Amino acid sequence: MYLVQSKAGAIACMLFSLFFLGTWPALLTFLERRGRLPQHTYLDYTITNLLAATFIACTVGEIGKSTVEQPNFFTQLSQDNWPSVLFAIAGGLVLTLGNLSTQYAWAFVGLSVTEVITASITVVIGTTLNYYLDEKINKAEILFPGVGCFLIAVCLGSAVHASNAADIKEKLDYFSNDSKNGVGTKGVTNSKQTNTDTVDTHDMENGVASEVKAKAGTALFLIEVENKRAMKVFGKSTYIGLAITFFAGVFLALFSPAFNLATNDQWHALKDGVPHLSVYATFFYFSISSSLLATILNFTFLYRPILNAPKSSVTSYVNDWGGRGWALLAGLLSGFGNGLQFMGGQAAGYAAADAVQALPLVSTFWGVILFGEYRRSSGRTYTLLAGMLIMFIVAVAILMASSGKRK
């Protein structure tokens, strides 16, 4: 099997992983905002996510001659390595619970803030655990200041969400007052801004589209998005979204340490003479458990949806081809992104590999470009957003600088 040996190779894996893992959440958010049910999207995502892991295991995991110390993927399937397999399965289970939670959190608090908070919690908890599991191969004097920067980013992310929620409320309140006074819509951005968009409010109430397309960030734009999306979030408490986000972050913080235990057996659970589970075999078992739980939960959510999502059925899911290609692509990106993260982590330490949690930098880019997040927001929101992203960039640079080399 092929193993990444150098620090440069490990960092290259992390950078590709960063792009993939930062892009797939944007694709799922894109579909939810256009009315596709989260249950349908995640079921499609799960299929290609598992296919990606299987492809990596059967190709890269089979490169080169199998040895006693480093057996190839198929050889390990028949070995007595069940303690490590159970750690891999546990990692897959917590990853699914975290990813499913973030899928609903995106609807409530937006792509950018969700990814920043969950990624930062993942680093604060997961990186600390990985540092000790990896026998401190990463430089603590560099690593933990980076972890502290991620923690500051969590606080700033929460502040960004609160500020943006206040901006949205102000836009909608101003829009409502104008409509009642017969002014029509002004596409309000805040109490000091207007634009030239106009619309007959009677047409809007009857679902007729405006002749003039609403500008991103205006009240009319927000209403149009709300009308299209699968999950309706207007009027919901902002604390619901933040609670789901923090819940997701805790689960996502545990999957990397579980994967670390599966591949390196720090607790000496394997019998003498049994080789450690390879990163590819671990990823395969990890992905099977993740996909199985995701399938069970999402089939359940078709008939018993959570957070007021619409009901569906297996028949409706099978016939729902709108956006299926994007959902399948998201699964591939996530699968290859996770695989590259683990390959880099096995070489340079899983604590350093948590630098891929910089994925909010990519997600925020897509959030602004694709969804118009933070358009026409207040100066306060822009200041907090800039501070959050700068702190994130600093944290990632510090974390990558702490990379070590596994013996």
UniProtKB/TrEMBL annotation:
Keyword DNA-binding among UniProt keywords: no
Transmembrane segments: 6-30, 42-62, 82-100, 107-130, 142-162, 238-259, 279-303, 324-344, 350-370, 382-401
Pfam family, one: Ureide_permease
Location relative to the cell: Membrane
Entry GO terms, CC: membrane
Molecular function GO terms recorded: allantoin:proton symporter activity; ATP binding; uracil:monoatomic cation symporter activity
UniProt topology in membrane: Multi-pass membrane protein
Keywords: ATP-binding, Membrane, Nucleotide-binding, Transmembrane, Transmembrane helix, Transport
Major place of residence: membrane
PANTHER family per the UniProt record, alphabetical: UREIDE PERMEASE 1-LIKE (PTHR31081:SF15), UREIDE PERMEASE 1-RELATED-RELATED (PTHR31081)
Family: Belongs to the plant ureide permease (TC 2.A.7.19) family.
Protein name: Ureide permease 4
Species annotation: Capsicum baccatum (Peruvian pepper)
Taxon lineage: Eukaryota, Viridiplantae, Streptophyta, Embryophyta, Tracheophyta
